[in-house]
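Question:
Now give any protein.
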Amino acid sequence: MTDARPNVAAPGRRTASDGPGRRPRGSITPDDVVAAAFDLATEISLTSLNMPKLARHLDVPVTSIYWHFRKKEQLLDAMLDHAIHEYHLETTFVDEKAWDEALRSHFRRMRDVFRQNPVLCDLVLMRVGELSPEATRTAIGRIEAVVETLVEAGFNPDDALEVYLALSVHSRGSALVEHLARQQGTGGAPMATRVMNRGVVGADFLAHASPTAMKVATLPNGDDTAADTNFEFTLDALIDKAKGLLDRARAASDAK
């Protein structure tokens, strides 16, 4: 998969052939800074990322970073904006098979993208920032593509949106549970509590929509087989529920 970073060339570190001293002020752009921030965050984590470390990574004075981003929050917002774009490129919905199989493929891919890229997971799932109009349009467009496919299959629009949201919460929540477990280094109730407190998945969702979720959340870290089993179990349950909604919509249509 591609890295979650802007489609720009990341600036390289200076070498002896570049001559003595740091890169001159004004030699880096905002895109350079964001690309380097993704590189560094991949190495040291998003939490550990700060402006002085980023300046050393770029081999520039820290004032060169502050020229473009006055504080870390602004940089994280810019990173989130690029991450949203890259995330949607990686999880483009492909309507090339039966609607239920298309959903399975799409939401499996969504989970895999977050599992494979911790920085992307931190930015998209754990950070709330203000998206640019372009990123907002990208996000809405992806939702509409799935909902339109479901409507064409016979769902009413409200049910189609509910199906999308339920599957999205499940895929994101599963990836986030695993991500937090890896960050902590162990499984257990504290990790599950953090997930629920963030509002990503609620207690009712864990207890009812995914009967084995709490059990899996307390398994030793790294038990990917158990996590995969739980994910597929709930994916099947949600799609079966969607089939029931579709049957109801068709019956209502036939009755008219």
Summary: The chain has two domains: 16-70, 92-255. Residues 1-20, 186-209, 216-221 have pLDDT under 50 and may be disordered. The longest helix spans residues 224-255.
